[in-house]
TrEMBL record:
Family matches, as InterPro entries: ATPase_NBD, Carb_kinase_FGGY, Carb_kinase_FGGY_CS, FGGY_C, FGGY_Carb_Kinase, FGGY_N
UniProt source species: Microbacterium murale
Molecular functions (GO terms): kinase activity
Keywords: Carbohydrate metabolism, Kinase, Transferase, Xylose metabolism
SUPFAM superfamilies, A to Z: Actin-like ATPase domain
Residues covered by the Carbohydrate kinase FGGY C-terminal domain: 261-442
Occurrences of domain Carbohydrate kinase FGGY N-terminal (ranges): 8-246
Alphabetized Pfam families for the sequence: FGGY_C, FGGY_N
Protein name in UniProt: Sugar kinase
UniProt-listed PROSITE patterns: FGGY_KINASES_2
Entry keyword Transferase: yes
Family of the protein in this entry: Belongs to the FGGY kinase family.
């Protein structure tokens, strides 16, 4: 008989810059982890895509590393997660017909968004799906492939996101979770929690509809073929999984009504959970990760991507930049950055927004720029939070998660700028840990499901400095006015960049 102490769940998340996997014990302890770094492709301005073969290859590599290094660890269930909403179309043999188009950072579908909005009507789109169409809308990206790449479209038969792609490769199940489906706007009916057939047939008619389940439901079992590749025993249950931001919320227990999750990563993501469907044109209304919940979500197009860009540009390392940014102080000695270096998602929904550095002088150094970049992401978070609350979101508790939470200065800057208290749990490894938790919950006997508060207790609380409240109120006003005052020029430059990228 197998000892319960040797039983683990495997959680794997495909992110924007890496794939991460963890082996987690029944009590939430992490036995081992593995990471595979990767990069996205940006073939044109506004395009962000990735070869989906990488997702499976990295899963296989991570699974083999962990199972080989820990041969006595019995994997009892597998959790999957991934960035999104992405659009991966595959043919009848599950071969991708083109690289996957990534989430809202990919802004290529502007013409399709305009056409679909005109054809369907903004009020009807919002009634059916909850949200207006933006660069985050998966359905518009499906329409882009239909319009722009007819050869690929002719072969397309199935639709995946990273988590559902892994579930397919592991189990042969063709499924998608409700949360991910609700971001395939306008193809999902949010109130009835089903595909909206009239619009699916109109814009994706040749593609078979994935069966809809919830993130923590079991999609199927590991096949013999997948077992031979991964080292995971055949017959092991695999959950359906969902988009990484929602799995991250699960990993820190920030998925109850009244919770707001802040995900610190390559981009910044915010998920507020409630019981009602809130609609506002500047945010994303989605189904929750679990039955009976709804989310109002938002995201910055750059956060960690912006600080990484500055690090590479200056040839520095993070400890140097953080020390200099701390010395720079609040306000970065008179600098203000708009963090729209890849356009912006919420709440301005402007793919043609561009990064702005205001107030720069010859006296400023790299530490000032780095401090201003941290403050820029914090100002973006504040803009989102204020928009959510204006739409009716009841935000009672804020939990921080993701790799960026390891940086104490960034956490403090966000609390100071927003005026929010943040709770930080013991484990901030993120979506892979949440996927492992969902897998453990899926196979638990009635009444024996683990509690995330036991797995991952809160260990740190970040409190805003009240002495900086007035200062950052003024800076936030300038932040909003700076965008309004520069957006026309930024749009002209964005148009020129698009022309240059195709020259």
């Amino acid at each position: 008989m197998t000892n319960d102490a040797a039983k683990y769940t495997l959680g794997v998340d495909v992110g924007t810059s890496s794939t991460k996997g963890v082996l987690v014990a029944k009590d939430g302890r992490i036995l081992a982890s593995a990471t595979r770094a990767h990069e996205v492709d940006r073939p044109h301005t506004g395009w962000v895509e990735m070869d989906a073969h990488i997702w499976w290859d990295e899963f296989v590599s991570i699974a083999n590393e962990l199972t080989t290094a820990h041969p006595n660890a019995e994997i009892t269930a597998v959790g999957v997660s991934g960035m999104g909403p992405c659009v991966l179309l595959a043919d009848a043999d599950d071969e991708p017909v083109r690289p996957a188009i990534l989430y809202g950072v990919d802004t290529r579908s502007g013409a399709q968004i305009a056409r679909m909005t005109d054809e369907l009507g903004i009020d009807e789109i919002t009634r059916v799906g909850g949200s207006t169409l933006t660069s985050q809308a998966g359905g518009a990206k499906i329409a882009w492939i239909s319009d722009e790449e007819p050869d690929a479209w002719t072969d397309a038969r199935r639709f995946f996101m990273p988590a559902s792609w892994l579930a397919r490769k592991l189990t042969s199940a063709y499924v998608l979770d409700h949360q991910s489906a609700s971001q395939t706007s306008p193809l999902y009916d949010i109130e009835n929690e089903t595909w909206y057939d009239p619009w699916w047939q109109r814009y994706a008619g040749t593609i078979a509809q994935p069966r809809l389940t919830w993130a923590g439901d079991i999609a199927g079992e590991v096949t013999a073929a997948a077992s031979a590749l991964t080292g995971i025993p055949a017959g092991t249950p695999v959950i359906t999984g969902t988009i990484d931001a929602w799995t991250e919320a699960v990993s820190v227990g920030a998925h109850e009504v009244g919770d707001l999750m802040l995900m610190y990563g390559t981009t910044m993501f915010l998920v507020a959970t409630g019981a009602e469907t809130l609609r506002t044109p500047s945010m994303w209304t989605t189904a929750g990760a679990f039955p009976g919940t709804r989310n109002l979500a938002g995201g910055l197009s750059t956060s960690g991507a912006l600080t990484a860009w500055l690090k590479d540009l200056t040839g520095s390392d993070y400890p140097e930049l953080l020390a200099e940014a701390e010395a720079s102080g609040a306000g970065a000695r008179g600098l203000l950055i708009l963090p729209y270096f890849a356009g912006e998602r919420t709440p301005i929904q402007d793919p043609d927004a561009r990064g702005i550095v205001a107030g720069l002088t010859l006296e400023h150094g790299r530490g000032d720029l780095y401090r201003a970049a941290l403050e820029a992401t914090a100002l973006g978070v504040r803009h989102n939070v204020e928009t959510m609350r204006a739409a009716g979101a009841d935000i009672r508790r804020i939990v921080a998660v993701g790799g960026g939470t390891q940086g104490q200065l960034w956490l403090q800057v966000i609390s100071d700028v927003t005026g929010l208290v943040q709770e930080v749990p013991a484990t901030t490894i993120g979506a892979s840990y949440g996927a492992a938790f969902l897998a453990a919950s899926a196979i638990a006997a009635d009444g024996a499901a683990p509690a995330i508060a036991d797995w991952n207790p809160i260990t740190q609380t970040i409190t805003p400095n009240p002495d900086l409240r007035s200062f950052y109120d003024t800076l936030f006003d300038r932040y909003v006015r700076l965008y309004e005052g520069t957006k026309d020029v930024a749009h002209e430059l964005a148009a020129e960049q698009r022309g240059a990228s195709h020259a």
